[in-house]
Amino acid sequence: MREWNITRKEYAIEYAKKHNVLVAVTNKTIYSRDWNLWHLSHELMGRDISPASLLVELNEVSGRHEIGRIDMVENRLVGMKSRGVYETPGGTILFTIERELKSLALDRETIQVKDSFALKYAKLGYVGRWFEPLRESMDEFM
């Protein structure tokens, strides 16, 4: 497809028609689905949506399937253990997407530094040190 400059699915459909190649998709049914024993995949339809609306929709859809639910015992800041059940379906989906995009775009060393910064950054907020110079410096660096 790259050799023939077919950069969009619409162009691929046009190319197939021009060369009498039968394909099961049209411009109206352009998004593909793949199903087998191991998985079911879909392409997401392209549409503009605000970040907040996206998260609401992800929470609704993925929450029905118990994505992002964790039952854990955490070590609290004051030294006690606390058991809790947390749910973040939309956040889990977005985190997974971000991790995959990061693996495609960044080199190994940059990913390692970014991940170490992310842990430190989160901890600063968790322990109430958000307004300290270190967090502000990390903002400037990133």
Molecular structure report:
One of its GO terms (molecular function) is ATP binding. Keywords: Amino-acid biosynthesis, Arginine biosynthesis, ATP-binding, Ligase, Nucleotide-binding. Pathway: Amino-acid biosynthesis; L-arginine biosynthesis; L-arginine from L-ornithine and carbamoyl phosphate: step 2/3. The protein has 142 residues and is an alpha+beta fold. The chain folds into three domains: 47 residues, no CATH class; 56 residues, no CATH class; 36 residues. 48% of the residues lie in helices and 14% in strands. The protein is built from five helices and four strands, in the order αββαββααα. Helix 2 packs across helix 3. The longest helix is centred in the C-terminal third of the chain and has 19 residues. The two termini are 37 Å apart.
Residues in helix, %: 40-55%
Query: What number of domains?
Result: 3
User: Stretches where pLDDT falls below 50 for ≥5 residues?
Assistant: none
Structural class: alpha+beta
How many beta-strand segments? 4
Biggest sheet overview: 2 strands, antiparallel
Q: What's the overall average pLDDT, rounded?
A: 87
Calculate Rg over CA atoms: 22 Å
Taking the alpha carbons of the first and last residues, their distance comes to 37 Å
Strand content: 5-15%
Question: What is the element string, with H for helices and E for strands?
Answer: HEEHEEHHH
Could you say which overall geometry the principal axes of the C-alpha atoms support?
A: elongated
- How would you write the strand order of the largest sheet? 1-2
Count the helices. How many?
5
